[in-house]
Design brief:
313 residues; alpha/beta; six-stranded antiparallel beta sheet; 8 helices; 25% helix; elongated
């Protein structure tokens, strides 16, 4: 059976396992890889290639690095000379316009890390955790000009663990995306694809997160909301509050049996405990501005000679 000529579009490390799967897939011929340009990075601000570009170079794949594939006439001309069966897109950071979408004979397919139509947009992994979902997954949809709104060709659900962090779920979905696409490739090759229109009335959105989203508001949040925010925003942007006026990063919380009014801090038993909207919680794993990351007990031991009263806001 004829191999599929695939163009892969992706940029960060999240995209690499899927690109690697395609490279080793017996039914796929990767005719080009498209990614973002090199960027200055690190202290020396030396140019650094995106992980997908590094992978493509190391495996001698045809590579296009462009700021905007839709306006890159040279790249479009090169692509138009290829007999492309499909585009596969994962975390590319660019929308594909009409010119690009018209190039492949079998369509362009985007891999999204949610169960669409839930969490369309840039941060579906974090929003699944922020909302305390016990299930998320990978969807593959045929791309249209509206973001994440095309017909579904595959949905693979996975369970979410109660204490799972954004970083841990990111890693699991990174490999699940490759597994899901592997299955879809066979459907595409055998002309066995079923298209299912999304229920657009049930669409929700997951916009890009900002540093300010990491602020923990104990007076307006219950325990579950704080617990979910802390784990969802690890490793970025992280969560924080102010301890005696200094920024305190928070990496883990747990429920406490103490009975405290909202916003009241208790350190009588050597732990950093605070009342929130519906209950009381302990800030277990923390890092105070200018200090190393540690447990709340270690932090309080180091501070006990300098202060006896604590305020958190």
């Amino acid at each position: 059976m004829k191999k599929l000529n695939i163009v892969f579009c992706g940029t960060p490390d999240f995209s690499v396992p899927t690109l690697e799967m395609l490279l080793n897939h017996p039914s796929v011929n990767i005719v080009s890889v498209i990614t973002m340009p090199d960027r200055p990075a690190g202290r020396g601000q030396k140019l650094q290639s995106p992980p997908v570009a590094e992978f493509a170079k190391n495996h001698k794949l045809e590579l296009i690095q462009t700021e905007n594939i839709n306006k890159d006439e040279q790249a479009l001309e090169a692509l138009s000379k290829l007999k492309i069966d499909a585009f596969v897109v994962l975390a590319f950071a660019q929308f594909l316009g009409s010119k690009v979408l018209s190039l492949p004979t079998l369509g362009s397919y985007n891999i999204h890390t949610s169960l669409l139509p839930k969490y369309r947009g840039a941060a579906p992994i974090q929003y699944a955790l922020l909302n305390g979902d016990n299930e998320t997954g990978v969807s593959i949809q045929r791309m249209v000009k509206q973001m994440d709104a095309g017909d579904l060709v595959l949905s693979d659900p996975i369970e979410v663990n109660e204490n799972e962090t954004g970083g841990q779920l990111y890693t699991r979905l990174k490999f699940q995306a490759a597994l899901s696409l592997n299955r879809f490739i066979y459907d595409l090759q055998n002309n066995n694809v079923t298209f299912e229109q999304q229920d657009h009335s049930k669409a929700t959105f997951a916009p890009t997160l900002k540093k300010e989203d990491g602020f923990l508001n104990f007076s307006e949040s219950n325990y579950e909301e704080i617990h979910n925010r802390v784990r969802a925003l690890i490793p970025w942007p992280g969560t924080w509050c102010k301890l005696n006026g200094k920024r305190l990063k928070v990496f883990k919380v747990q429920k406490s049996l103490k009975d405290l009014d909202c916003g009241v801090v208790d350190t009588s038993e050597g732990n950093l405990v605070i009342g929130c909207k519906d209950s009381t919680l302990r800030l277990v794993d923390v890092q105070l501005e200018g200090k190393k990351r540690c447990t709340d007990s270690s932090l309080l031991n180091g501070l006990k000679n300098s202060t006896t009263e604590f305020t958190i806001n």
